[in-house]
Structure to design on (551 residues):
């Protein structure tokens, strides 16, 4: 039995504190849930704790691309480009509704980062390394063709362009679906439970963790043979608790994205363009908005509260103005934003942008395995590396052959019966035909399928049950809330708006217009006290204020 419903939390807590696990993982970002899926599917009895919500760390604050990292080619990180480049195609097959091919336009401008020749060679090498199939391989464009793809580019300085293959995703949804898929294999994952200390056996080897349930203020122990620290930017905090810090440590760099209404920055397609300081940033249209990012600056502030500031926003607006002079944007046009930190491994003498995105595993003398660095895109390979280490240790003891990684062929929840893009588009049309009768739009069909894949069927059924007493958009919201509370362990407004539906970033108007109704639904589900309701309102208002107030 898997415990994916918020209402089953007491049972799950009971199980976690009374069972003995092979493996317990700290951190419910993409790395942690990836390890949980890999381990559980190899037959290990697996538990995972996440101190806030799943994906609330870096894994909901990325550029939301499953990509080969073209810019790493500039730094000659050939192995990294090859590995993550090939992973893109695999992750796309596992969840084609969530990892969607998207052509990226690279404009070539006078005095830009790449000239025509270098762009052509660079994109060709990228295709080869990433194993891009023929029809998707790079296409070099003349000035006129580039403008046809993106008329907003400035004619005078443009020399041409290159089109290459990328994939876009929703990082938080990807994390949630990997967590849910791990649950299918028996992994017990829980949010709002923090690892606060390690348990040690007589030989001083880590044999579990002491946890604090942050919703009930209760402390308990999870016993396990092996403990993995996949706490992203918090990896060193746990290594410190484990007294296993050495000369290798994390270097955090902050990255900010801003969200603009699409009509204010109406790019026709995703673009990767130059910033005057020599960096490059993305502009990505997504439904009703265009989002732009990212910055890359050393971060020494509070890791538990990372927000965009006016300087970050001005930097991105200036970058847009530089490449798209006819677009007039002001800080007041920013409707939402997000900021996160990259948990990179420190390298002496290198700046934020120069540091490698490679992952690294640290093993302490007390047996703690920590993993840091890496990318969303490479989560499966990173997980394989960690679980290989765990099974090697475990099976060394009894001499049997360790089970091998199988995640390459495990479809993620919502992607099971969708073999490819064509099937996804067909399914969107099917959902549209159904929900149109209930007053919803084609956008809603696209939104549902991009978020939930084939799980949209369940939400649509619930939508029609609710529809007689609710207008269409409200019935949809309530159906989504019902689904996410019962299947995705949602406990609060921000879990719902930010990390399950993405509405906080991509449809902020729907957050403003629905918060009262959603709050009432939560009250019905969880019988919140007046203090809890007040706390939720304050948290949401603060988040809204911080995400869009930069004047
Ligand atoms: P996190 O997602 O931070 O997860 C760690 C989790 O551990 C957190 O949720 C935290 O709450 C939890 N935790 C910490 N301490 C404890 C504790 N004591 N007990 C329990 N839980 C704990 N990669 C790509 O592939 N494509 C991109 O487009 C891309 N863009 C990026 C853009 C930006 C601005 C940034 C910052 C990163 C980007 N990345 C991208 C990199 C990618 O987002 C990260 O590599 C990845 O999300 C890291 O995941 P993680 O699970 O290691 O860390």
């Amino acid at each position: 039995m898997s415990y994916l419903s918020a209402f089953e939390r007491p049972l799950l807590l009971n199980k976690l504190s009374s069972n003995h696990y092979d493996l317990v993982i700290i951190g419910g970002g993409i790395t942690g849930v990836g390890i949980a899926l890999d381990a559980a599917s190899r037959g290990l009895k697996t538990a995972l704790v996440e101190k806030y919500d799943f994906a609330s760390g870096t894994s909901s604050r990325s550029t939301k691309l499953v990509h080969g990292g073209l810019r790493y080619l500039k730094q000659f990180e050939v192995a990294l480009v090859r590995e993550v480049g090939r992973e893109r195609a695999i992750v796309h097959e596992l969840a084609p509704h969530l990892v969607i091919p998207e052509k990226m336009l690279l404009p070539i401008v006078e005095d830009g980062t790449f000239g025509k020749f270098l762009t052509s060679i660079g994109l060709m090498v990228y295709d080869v390394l990433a194993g891009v199939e023929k029809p998707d391989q790079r296409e070099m464009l003349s000035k006129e063709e580039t403008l046809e793809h993106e008329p907003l580019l400035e004619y005078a300085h443009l020399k041409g362009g290159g089109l290459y293959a990328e994939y876009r995703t929703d990082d938080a949804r990807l994390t949630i679906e990997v967590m849910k898929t791990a649950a299918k294999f028996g992994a017990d994952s829980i949010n709002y439970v923090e690892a606060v200390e390690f348990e040690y056996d007589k030989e001083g080897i880590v044999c579990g963790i002491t946890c604090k349930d942050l919703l009930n203020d209760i402390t308990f122990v999870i016993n396990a043979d092996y403990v993995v620290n996949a706490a992203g930017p918090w990896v060193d905090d746990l290594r410190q608790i484990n007294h296993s810090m050495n000369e290798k440590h994390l270097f955090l760099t902050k990255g900010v994205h801003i969200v603009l209404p699409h009509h204010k920055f109406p790019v026709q397609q995703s673009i990767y363009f130059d910033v005057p300081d020599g960096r490059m940033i993305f502009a990505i249209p997504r439904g009703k908005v265009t989002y732009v990012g990212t910055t890359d600056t050393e971060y020494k502030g509070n890791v538990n509260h990372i927000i965009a500031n006016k300087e970050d926003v001005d930097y991105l607006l200036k970058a847009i103005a530089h490449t798209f002079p006819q677009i007039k944007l002001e800080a007041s046009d920013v409707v939402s934003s997000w900021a996160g930190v990259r948990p990179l491994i420190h390298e002496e003498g290198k700046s934020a942008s120069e540091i490698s995105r490679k992952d690294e595993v640290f093993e302490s003398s007390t047996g703690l395995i920590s993993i840091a660095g890496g990318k969303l895109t490479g989560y499966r390979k990173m997980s394989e590396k960690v679980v290989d280490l765990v099974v090697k240790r475990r099976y060394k003891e009894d001499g049997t052959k360790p089970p091998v990684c199988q995640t390459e062929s495990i479809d993620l929840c919502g992607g099971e019966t969708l073999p490819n893009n064509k099937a996804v588009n067909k399914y969107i049309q099917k959902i549209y035909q159904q929900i149109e009768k209930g007053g919803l739009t084609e956008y809603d069909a696209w939104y549902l399928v991009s978020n939930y894949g084939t799980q949209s069927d369940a939400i649509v059924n619930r939508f029609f049950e609710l529809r007689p007493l609710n207008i269409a958009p409200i019935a949809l919201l309530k159906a989504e809330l019902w689904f996410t509370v019962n299947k995705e362990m949602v406990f609060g407004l921000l879990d719902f708006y930010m990390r399950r539906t993405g509405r906080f970033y991509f449809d902020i108007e729907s957050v403003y217009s629905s918060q009262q109704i959603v709050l009432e639904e939560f009250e019905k589900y969880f019988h919140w006290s007046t203090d809890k309701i007040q706390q939720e309102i304050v948290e949401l208002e603060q988040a809204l204020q911080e995400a869009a107030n930069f004047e």
